[in-house]
Amino acid sequence: LGKKNLGKLRNLAKDPRSDPYKLPNGNLVVPSGVQADMLFVPTSVANEFIQAAEIVVDSGIFLEIAIPLAVDFTRRVTNVTVHTIDLCTGWYKAGRKRGTVGMVTACHSEYPNITFGMIHPLKISMGLTEWGDLFDEVVLRPLQSSWV
């Protein structure tokens, strides 16, 4: 979490707007091990998510902590079920950068037993032709093989 974020979390816990999201004992829970790269918020809970996100954003907490907090706050007040999907990032492999062709194509070849629900985006700055070819390779080819 780091010292900066601990201080910001302390301030968030003191913010009266965070009271509806606290445990019965008055504590806030910081979800761990949650990815914050991509998120889908159903319209049925969008207003609650916006309110929760505004409180967290106002605290200045780092994004990777803020998004899971806002999701958890929303879950607490709406009782919505939060679903997670496997996200292939591949960035941790030696010499591979997130958002590159090598990272995206490695998802299927290096992890054949995992069905990823999402692949970390290829940076469009890599070039639209390359991006389009890779989309065909990663999305359409596996789809077409399931049509057989």
| Beta-strand percent range | under 5%
Structural class: mainly alpha
Shape: elongated
In whole angstroms, the N-to-C terminal distance is: 48 Å
Query: How many extended strands?
Result: 2
Set down the secondary structure blueprint.
Elements (H helix, E strand, L loop, with lengths): L1 H13 L31 H14 L3 H16 L8 E2 L12 H10 L7 E2 L8 H20 L1
Parallel strand pairs: 1-2
Helix pairs in contact: 2-3, 4-5
Polypeptide structure, described:
- There is one protein chain.
- With 148 residues, the chain is an all-alpha fold.
- It has 5 helices and 2 strands.
- A two-stranded parallel sheet has the order 1-2.
- The model has no long low-confidence stretch (mean pLDDT 78).
Overview features:
two-stranded parallel ribbon; 49% helix; elongated
Summarize the structure.
The protein is an all-alpha fold. It is 49% helix and 3% strand.
